[in-house]
Amino acid sequence: MTSANELPAQLGYRWPAEWEPQASVWVSWPRNVESWPGKFEPVPGEFAQLVRAMAQFQRVNINAGRPEVMAQAESLVGNVPNVFLHDIPTNDAWCRDHGPTFLTSDRDLPPALVDWQYNAWGGKYPPFDFDNEVPGKIAKIQGRHVFTPGIILEGGAIDGNGRGTLLTTRSCLLNENRNPHLDQAATEQYLRDYLGVQKILWMTGGEIEGDDTDGHIDQLARFVDARTVVVSVCEDESDENYGPTQQNLAELQAMTDQDDRPLEIVRLPLPRPLFVDDQRLPAGYCNFVFVNGGVVVPQFGDPADARAIAILQELLPHHRVIGSPSLDLVWGLGSFHCLSQQEPLTKLPLPK
Description:
- This protein has 352 residues and is an alpha/beta fold.
- It has one domain (2-344): 5-stranded Propeller (L-arginine/glycine Amidinotransferase, Chain A).
- It contains eleven helices and 20 strands.
- It has a five-stranded mixed β-sheet. It has a four-stranded mixed β-sheet with strand order 5-4-3-20. Strands 9-10-11 form a three-stranded mixed β-sheet, sandwiched between helices.
- A hairpin with a 4-residue loop joins strand 12 and strand 13.
- The radius of gyration is 19 Å and the shape is globular.
């Protein structure tokens, strides 16, 4: 069922935090060789390692439409427990951005999702017609209620604490290549109406080098509990990422949550610069993914890999924090969080 007039927040839906219990995580099998130019061959294998890592904790649903894609997915992960393949075609693998935003409710409401419009980060990488259809196809499979705001929004552009606070960047959400007809106030109203949030925290958008999303928040900073935010920080003053990440840190240190309490800010290191030819890669540890009882962190063969895992493990003592390789995947200019979209359990009470 599609809804054009009803607003999720008015009905009692909300957007839960990623560490709340999940029914599954959705991913889209990598198939677009142009996303990993000259280096696609190892990508499906590394993606399969991510799938296996997540499947240790919970169900993993994979969009694997088209016979050749389905065949490869079946050969690499078809026999892995908790993995389920679906005949949903995609243009690319970035399910965080083309997938739906799943909602939950503290009331007796039917399962629902938000089907935003998608234009491949401001029209940068056409075609994206199959990707834009993914939320509707998932809703049809699951019999979900569908809310259609009619505006462009990628999942990697927003991060929330499940209590009413949302973190995002001006450089992305207010970019003219998304919704040129919307100003900040109008954009905020959509976020309140469709995600049930009350407070929107706007970072300027200090992008890390190599990012092609105009400053997705999941490359920069992430909530790990209701008040704690980890932020990617470069400490090398000679590095191009030093200025932008220090700016992000300063902005976050001045922010408060929905109850006007200061946020707890924890620094995550960045790995040493990684390049393919002359292209710097947006490698960072904020692109981790939450699963039930676990966190999977991208690894780049860098000394900071272990530091990032240790920092997150200390912050999340009730989760098992593990690493999985991402040296090949990040050549596509994204990593684990960009590739995944969590599906929460429904009808859960608000966490205490």
